Amino acid sequence: MKKFETSFLLGAATAAHQVEGNNTNSDCWAMEQMEHTAYVEPSLDAVDHYNRYEEDIRLMAEAGLNVYRFSLEWARIEPREGVFEEKEIKHYRSVIRCCKEYGIAPIVTLHHFSSPIWIITKGGWEAESVVEDFAKYVRYVMEHLGEELQYVCTINEANIGLQIAGIAERYKKIMMSQMEASGDKDGNVQMGMNFQKMLEGQQAQAEENKKVFGVEKVENFTSMRTRKGDLLIMKAHQAAKSVIKELYPDMKVGLTLSLHDVQVVEIGGESFAEKEWEDEFLHYLPYIQEDDFLGVQNYTRSRFGKEGRMGNPADAELTQMNYEFYPEALEHVIRKVAKEFHQDLIVTENGIAVADDSQRIAFLEKALEGVQNCIADGIPVKGYCYWSLLDNFEWQKGYSMTFGLIGVDRTTQKRMPKDSFYYLGNQR
User: Fold this and answer.
1) Average pLDDT of adjacent 10-residue blocks, the chain of 428 residues
2) Which residues make Cβ contacts (< 8 Å) with residue 224, sequence separation at least 6?
3) Are strands 151-155 and 301-305 parallel, antiparallel or unpaired?
4) Exposed, middle or buried: residue 247 (CB in 10 Å: 0-12, 13-18, 19+)?
5) Which of 232, 257, 255, 15 is nearest to 125 (CA)?
6) Cys-Cys with 240: which of 55, 138, 186, 425 at CB 3.0–4.6 Å?
7) What per-residue confidence (pLDDT) applies to 195?
């Protein structure tokens, strides 16, 4: 495969809560500790990147990588409303400067899913106040770190809440159809589903939410998003961008979106696919079209037929996340996005969770070939960040999903670079 130009940004990505450990003031940490939690295990020390960042950055440089996309943790920097921790902003300044010392370009994400507990207490990401609160946090960060940066992502996967709402709606329809088919009016259906028990669980969770967050319904960033909440996220992005540009007019600012390769595989699926792409991408254009870049995040494809969304092909190779192994999706998404968004593109996440690292190398080879095809056709793709640098805490699924280019023995926190790590670094 042809190698990238030396100026091309080629590296990997992480998110603070998933790698740092002991993010005790965040909503995610609080939810992990709850009795009625959806998390299979707590994050605890994670992979101790908070203390071991220099080792991890040095490994990246030794492998030949030249960009690191990572997030700052709002809950560390502003653990209580209006109270900013100088110690934490100094920590992140050290991380940024460490990147530069090793020839690694830092791409900083200001919000990657986790939020301070106090934001949730105020109504979370469905409250109007979150826009101003986020802007104040961004101002503090940029006043202290802005001179160190060139690229800033305001918000990671701004569209994730709508995607989760769509998944929840599909599950609800499946459950209702099963209940109707069984003729069980009390709510007990096959597959061990017990609607009465689920209702009791929801009530218990609401009570626990009140104790932990002061509200019955937690509206965190990855909750099922309403259309109002979706608009608030765009307002938060624009408010953040306004602050950044006021302080540093030449800063490259954008956000990232979770994007599927939306495909019509049966006649009659066109309208379903069009709505999917509208919800996932097109309706955000008015709010991002003046951004300096867009972070493209893709893992697989979505297939549509005459009755709507279809499952994976019967013979599909699946990853640990039950995604179809389909690295061709990235090229398709980049081309589709570039038809409507005419600024720079950076692949800020793309990868697979597998135990067999040879599959990861095969995935990378095909995905990177697609990126090169796009560049050859004049599409302004400026970088590629594999997800993720380290095997880490995959949110509610815990530590069982191995996305990383570097394995970690969590007993000793020993780093174990994989062949895919050096394969990626050798592509420039």
Assistant:
1) 94 98 98 92 98 98 98 98 98 98 98 98 98 98 98 97 83 62 43 47 88 95 95 98 98 98 97 97 98 98 96 96 97 98 98 98 98 98 98 96 98 98 98
2) 161, 164, 165, 168
3) unpaired
4) middle
5) 232
6) 138
7) 46
Q: Distance between CA 43 and CA 75 in Å, rounded?
A: 15
Residue 119 to residue 135: CA distance in whole angstroms = 13
Q: Are 254 and 294 in contact (CB under 8 A)?
A: yes
H/E element holding 357?
helix 357-376
Tell me what pLDDT residue 186 has. 40
Three-state DSSP class for 248? Answer: coil
> Cis peptide leading into 177, omega within 30 of 0?
no
Question: What is the number of residues in the chain?
Answer: 428
Residue written as token pair 């995040």: 297
Q: What angle do CA 316, 321, 327 make, to 5 degrees?
A: 55
**Predicted model pTM:** 0.95
293-297 vs 308-310, strand pairing mode: unpaired
Q: HSE of 166 in the Cβ direction (CA atoms, 13 Å)?
A: 14
C-alpha span between 399 and 338 (Å, rounded):
35
- Report the alpha-carbon distance of residue 225 to residue 163 in Å, rounded: 8
- Check if the beta carbon of residue 301 is closer than 8 Å to that of residue 332: yes
CB atoms within 10 A of CB 173: 11
Q: Which two tokens stand for residue 209?
A: 């939410």
Q: Report the 10 Å Cβ neighbour count for 392.
A: 26
Residue 260 contacts by C-beta under 8 Å, 6 or more apart in sequence? 276, 280, 298, 299, 300, 301, 302, 329, 333
Q: Which of 113, 94, 134 is nearest to 393 (CA)?
A: 113
| Structure-token pair, residue 88 | 């934490």
Q: Which residues contact 120 (CB under 8 A, 6 or more apart)?
A: 27, 213, 215, 218, 219, 220
Q: H-helix or E-strand containing 277?
A: helix 270-280
What the block records as the tokens of 310 is 């279809």
DSSP annotation string for 89-151: HHHHHHHHHHHHHTT-EEEEEEE-S--BHHHHHTTGGGSTHHHHHHHHHHHHHHHHHGGG-SE
Of the chain, the end-to-end C-alpha distance in Å amounts to 11
Neighbour tally for 47: CB within 10 Å: 27
DSSP bridge pairs for 414:
409
